[in-house]
């Protein structure tokens, strides 16, 4: 079965640079979530989108922005990168229970490991 | 706010034996979901099992089962016939079920499980 795809898998940036992470949800999933997992930490929710509209917002810094496109893929844009942004960034997707077949269960991609030097 | 507590930072079990991972949560919500995710050394987040709060029957997936005690706000994971491939970090997660909104998951700090040969 198709899974969530994230690209790139690894990214190295310098401080104050920008980074763009991409997420391609499971086909027919309508909701995308972004999480940040620091070293030795549990994943922390950043932001989610349902049907291309922002749905929920967590601890996402103002330097970060995200959107979901017409093909349901999502991009997380990170500017003015700081050393503390080094983390594993997960995208997850789900099929919302707003529809008859939805379960809201989130399936995670493999993550993008961002290293800020 | 919802909190998830995993009181066992590390556990170990012999291959083929049974182990139980503990999870408690705090919420004033009546409708919600609970999950166990597994994160092996590859760092992939893999769904292990899901429980709807309105269901009294405990969820089971092959060797994995839960003991869901809603009144006690407890959600433990039992792994039977442990296998070396079960070695991973296990996260307990909580998600509200508001129906009209797509909610982020709140994770516990994780329990690192090692299966010994």
Can I get a quick summary?
Chain A is mainly β and 117 residues long. Chain A contains no helices and eleven strands.
CATH topology of chain B: Immunoglobulin-like
- Note the run of SSEs of chain A as H and E: EEEEEEEEEEE
Query: Number of helix segments of chain B?
Result: 0
Order of helices and strands of chain B: EEEEEEEEEEEE
Percentage of helical residues of chain B?
under 10%
Shape of chain B: globular
Low-pLDDT runs of chain A: none
Write the layout of secondary structure elements.
The complex is a heterodimer of chains A (117) and B (117).
Chain A: E1 5-7, E2 10-13, E3 19-24, E4 31-37, E5 44-50, E6 53-57, E7 64-68, E8 74-78, E9 87-94, E10 107-108, E11 112-116
Parallel strand pairs in A: 2-11
Antiparallel strand pairs in A: 1-3, 3-8, 4-5, 4-9, 5-6, 7-8, 9-10, 9-11
Chain B: E1 3-5, E2 10-14, E3 19-21, E4 24-26, E5 32-39, E6 46-52, E7 60-61, E8 64-69, E9 74-79, E10 88-96, E11 106-107, E12 111-116
Parallel strand pairs in B: 2-12
Antiparallel strand pairs in B: 1-4, 3-9, 5-6, 5-10, 7-8, 8-9, 10-11, 10-12
Could you characterize what this model shows?
The complex is a heterodimer of chains A (117) and B (117). In chain A, the strands form 2 sheets. In chain A, strands 2, 4, 5, 6, 9, 10 and 11 form a 7-stranded mixed sheet that branches. A 4-stranded antiparallel sheet of chain A has the order 1-3-8-7, with no helix packed on it. In chain A, a hairpin with a 5-residue loop joins β7 and β8. Chain A has 117 residues and is an all-beta fold. Chain A is elongated. Chain A is built from no helices and 11 strands. Chain A has a single domain, classed as Immunoglobulin-like (Sandwich). The model of chain A has no long low-confidence stretch (mean pLDDT 92). Chain B has 117 residues and is mostly beta strands. Chain B has a single domain, classed as Sandwich (Immunoglobulin-like), CATH 2.60.40.10. In chain B, the strands form 3 sheets. In chain B, strands 2, 5, 6, 10, 11 and 12 form a 6-stranded mixed sheet that branches. Chain B has a 4-stranded antiparallel sheet with strand order 3-9-8-7, with no helix packed on it. The termini of chain B are far apart. The interface between A and B is medium-sized, with 27 and 25 residues.
